[in-house]
Amino acid sequence: MNKRFNRRGFIQGGLAASAAATVSLAGKTQAATFEGYPNSMGVLVDLSRCVGCRSCEAACNKEQHLPAPEKPFNDFSVFDEMLHGQKRRTDETRYTVVNRYEIPGREHPLYRKIQCNHCQEPACLTSCFVNAYTKTPEGAVIYNPDVCVGCRTCMVACPFYIPTFRYSSAFHPRIMKCVFCYDTRLTKGRPPACVESCPQEALTFGRRNDLLDMGRQRIRENPGAYEDHIYGEHEAGGTAWMYLSPAPFAQVGFDTSVPKEPILNYVKDFLSIVPMVLTIWPALFAGFHLLAKRKETRGQQTKNEGEV
Amino acid sequence: MKYNPKTVIAAAVLLLAGILSLGRYGQAMDQMNALETVTIDSLAELYQPVKFQHKWHTKMASCKDCHHHTTGQQDMNPNCFRCHAQSRETSRVACKDCHTKKQFYPEQVTARDNRNLYHIDKPGLKGAYHLNCVPCHVKKNAPSHCEGCHALTEKGKEFIQVQDKGKNKAAAAKESHAH
After folding, report:
1. What is the pTM of this model?
2. CB 3.0-4.6 Å disulfide test: which of A172, A175, B49, B86 passes with B44?
């Protein structure tokens, strides 16, 4: 027994194993970031066109069979609603919301529609430990309530504060968020309900790559009409829904501090060492512990033997 | 020298036609000949048709402002000018002759693969109507909310979820109690 398993051998083996594991896992963390499915779809929102008619909200409500709103969709007093010092947000009764922004120096206000931006590499998806989320090749980030355990980590992970929870239902709680009309429209080649309802064509539906070209063309051909930036081209690693704005994005309620890389990148390196820590460290330290104890018990034994 | 009367008449007709056609191309379509009203009803579903005071609007805008290059005036929009700098007036000038009722369906989205299709970023019919009217209405403080131009239909009221008066009163009562 002593010959086959001595301390030096054990430590050498343990170090070699942990080094091997570190090297092999380090390779994985350098995997290229996912740049999105080719030909995936998206929507370009042009804030210079939106007049705040709320048709998109009405269309979404109908398409997704959401509960009736408190105020009809042609009631524009909702733009004055504030909750906890914030403008209206998505919740379990509305997957999309239009808010009004008074911009200093502009005669007319701007309106911004918010909904799920359908990230290329979604933080909600990567944070979900039961894989309730899927990024489909068409570009939608969809959600499966059947496997969801209701931990709501996705709500914390989302850099745009979009997923919401159906707290009102005690027996069927679930995450409520825009799904890009995936099952009813996107898979059938139809544009999302909000896009089709927009009278101003403030929402342009198309392949994400084409939309980027289109957005750049609008910026180029209308000098001074737009900020020279497409929000969502790189934000959070790129999103399917992107925005053009005639005013600085920060003034229209956009979070300009959202990183330009997938949220996942911030935890990838840490997460990659978790399996190593969970598998190798227990064996390694248990080994150290046993070796240390062995000496102690041996000493105890000889002591005991001597006494006898 | 004697002229055949038939030749004289033929020459006169040709000359007259030439002058007329020249005049037509030179000045393009006359704004005075514009239709008095145009009923825009091809998309009426949630909202009633619009009785558009067409001639009245020509006092404030020239033909090209709405009809692009199709009326013989030169459109200065860079997106159109690229190709239509020399374009003459066309036989059909209605919005729906070029702008499609359906928009963002595969015909429009993947048709971009067609190299002969140059109308990139061309709005659909609904977009064309509203993008023509609304920006100017906003600028000139003309009605720019939906029902300023077209009233809701019954189907539209359902879509917008206009509540009946009784319900509104109930909501108001609830609100006043809360205060």
Report:
1. 0.80
2. B49
